[in-house]
Design goal:
Distance between the termini: 75 Å
Number of helices: 14
Radius of gyration: 41 Å
Bound molecules: adenosine-5'-diphosphate
Number of strands: 19
Strand content: 15-25%
Low-confidence stretches: none
Largest sheet: 7 strands, antiparallel
Structural class: alpha/beta
Shape: elongated
Length: about 475
């Protein structure tokens, strides 16, 4: 590294000058000279040389070895000793300071040059190595997966924090222990121990994945489902020198998987009933010998079934659009009162078990609304009102103009909802025990209502008392006249 800045520490002025001249000749510009250990430490801190050439015997409080130790620890500058003394004691003391070279006077110019270049190179390499070690250590520490490394005998050499918290062992305690002691795994179904992945990696010499359904048994006995893989660590000659194991807690993934399965089951169940009506209706309509009236009746039942299917699918589509951030409503100014009456009319034809009363003033301001979505909201609320109230009781739909919005409500005289359960209703998959688990439903209707009302910048809420019926309210802001 020609051009390196060198600090000479030498109390003999003539010798210092000699070294200085030689260095210049070798291509190191302006080497600086100081004459004592104290000065050396001070100057090193000021000018941060690339290397210090240090005489050992120096006048003053601290000698060359002490000065070198300070320079090294405080400023991380490599030191090469130059000395006339090479007795064992001095060498031993000097060794402790991890010098990058040690030259006994008198020395040749060539020797000086080689020593300096080797020291500079070694220091640079050490810096790079330290940097890459830190880089790896930080990466391993920060990585979201748990990491455990072992030596070639399967003894633990490293664990990151995630591994510590999953296994319940700190690295300090686990270090040098057999992997199997800290990383205890079993098959979730058979509850039999699973072969230690490190043993497998050492035997097969390749990356291995764990079998599915592996359970980690933490130090406190907690069982955590994990998936993991192990890989050999090899040296430059392809010898296995250790194993690295990466694993993660899959509790959440399994929970989501289960929810998905349950949901698919629920959807299939929900769809099957109206689908059966449609198929049976069409089947019967094609049976020879049916009167026109009978045909009309079965076809209308089939049409109802088809409409229920469409409604379920619409709810699902709305939610998946919402999840994907793609729920877009297309508002147009409409006479909300007239639209509600029309929707109620259709609903009344569909379900005759409850009379539906409408309480809407003659004139209401027009509001910018997505008509199909309004229909979807009301359909969900009316369906619920019918589902959760005894046959024959009245359902009432009201609309009123307020200061800055329309207030629309759907009331029933049904089972009602306890106060502490009301907040839960508008969350996904929430179905209340009181509703009777056998009442049909996916537990998504009210969630869809909430999303759709909010997409219109409105609010939705419920007022209810168990046994005394429920009223669901929602608002549609007026200033959105479209
Ligand atoms: P679903 O009706 O498909 O179960 P919803 O999201 O529409 O799903 O409703 C969630 C839950 O809220 C229902 O399961 C029921 O327990 C309760 N609920 C909804 N509407 C009413 C109502 N009008 N009266 C009583 N309980 C209701």
């Amino acid at each position: 590294m020609t051009g390196a800045k060198i600090l000479i520490v030498e109390d003999e002025a003539i010798e210092a000058l000699d070294i200085q001249q030689r260095l210049v000749k070798l291509g190191y510009p302006h080497p600086d000279v100081v004459y004592s250990g104290e000065e050396a430490v001070k100057r090193a801190g000021e000018i941060h040389p690339d290397l210090v050439l240090m005489d050992i015997m120096l006048p003053g409080e601290i000698d060359g070895v002490t000065a070198a130790a300070q320079i090294r620890t405080r400023f991380d500058i490599p030191v090469v000793y130059l000395t006339a003394y090479a007795d064992e004691d001095t060498v031993r003391r000097a060794k402790v300071t991890e010098p990058y070279g040690y030259m006994v006077k008198p020395f040749q110019e060539r020797e000086l040059h080689i020593n300096i270049e080797i020291a500079l190179y070694k220091h640079k390499m050490e810096g790079e190595l330290r940097e890459s070690r830190e880089w790896f250590a930080t990466t391993l520490r920060c990585i979201g997966d748990a990491v455990i490394a072992t030596d070639k005998d399967g003894k633990i050499t490293f664990m990151n924090q995630v591994a510590e918290s999953l296994t319940g062992w700190r690295l300090a305690e686990a270090s040098s222990k057999e992997l199997a002691e800290v990383f205890r795994i079993m098959n979730r179904d058979t509850r039999q121990p699973v072969e230690n992945p490190v043993t497998r990696v050492l035997r097969e010499g390749t990356v291995v994945g764990l079998a599915n359904h592996t359970m980690l048994i933490a130090r406190d006995g907690a069982e955590i489902p994990i998936d993991d893989s192990g890989a050999p660590i090899k040296d430059a000659r392809e010898n296995i020198i250790g194993v690295v194991l990466v694993f993660r807690d899959v509790t959440e993934q399994e929970r989501i998987g289960k929810l998905k399965d349950e949901f698919i089951g629920l959807v299939s169940h929900e769809i099957r009933t109206p689908l059966t009506t449609v198929i049976a209706g069409l089947d019967m309509a094609m049976t020879p010998g049916m009167t026109a009236e009978e045909t009309q009746e079965v076809l209308s039942a089939a049409a109802d079934g088809a409409e229920s299917l469409a409604h379920i699918v619409n709810n699902l589509v709305e939610l998946s659009r919402y999840q994907a951030n793609r729920m877009q409503i297309s508002r147009a100014p409409i006479d909300v009162g007239a639209v509600i009456k029309e929707i109620v009319g259709k609903e009344q034809v569909r379900s005759r078990a409850h009379p539906i009363a409408v309480d809407i003033p003659q004139t209401l301001p027009r509001v910018g609304v997505d008509q199909l979505r309004l229909e979807q909201i009301l359909r969900n609320l009316l369906d619920n009102a019918a589902k959760y109230s005894p046959d024959g009781t009245e359902i009432r739909v009201c609309a009123r103009q307020q200061a800055d919005s329309l207030l629309i409500s759907v009331s029933d005289q049904g089972i009602g909802i306890a106060a502490d359960e009301q907040a839960r209703l508008f969350q996904p998959f929430q179905r209340l025990e009181a509703g009777g688990r056998n009442a049909k439903g996916l537990g998504l209707g009210l969630l869809v209502c909430k999303r759709l009302v909010e997409a219109h910048d409105g609010r939705i809420w419920v007022e209810s008392e168990p046994g005394r019926g429920s009223t669901f309210y929602f608002t549609l802001p007026l200033d959105r006249a479209g």
